[in-house]
Amino acid sequence: MKESLKGVGVGLPPGMLTELDAYAATKGLSRSEAIRVAIAVGLPMLKLGLAVNTQRTLAILEHTQLALSLLVERQYPDDAGALVDMAFQNVEEYHA
Question: What is the Rg, in whole angstroms, of the alpha carbon atoms belonging to the chain?
């Protein structure tokens, strides 16, 4: 059963609205769906009191991934490809 939705009016600066619409277009979402996604991702972090520096977070994730990939490729070269495949399967299953 589809959850009923209640409307909420919100004003956004033009630049933010442009970014929102661009995100929605690339993901094939409506503006409302994109806003729901942003709130679903952001609200739990706000509730925890987290302020995220996105660029720093992405740099940490990339560095960690590269370091781990290098270690796996050197120590377990036969398993490296399978681990990448499994990672993408997990992304599709748990984060799609």
Answer: 19
How much of the chain is helix, strand and coil, in % rounded to 5?
Answer: 70, 0, 30
How many helices and strands, by DSSP H and E, does the chain display? 4, 0
> What pTM value is reported for the model?
0.55
Distances (CA, A) of 25 to 7, 19, 62, 73, 90: 21, 10, 26, 37, 25
50-73 pLDDT, tens digit per residue, is 877 889 989 999 999 999 999 999
74 has a pLDDT exceeding 80? yes
- Asked whether residue 19 falls in the same domain as residue 38, the answer is yes
Asked whether residue 28 is domain-assigned, the answer is yes
Domains in the chain, number: 2
Q: Are 31 and 24 in contact (CB under 8 A)?
A: yes
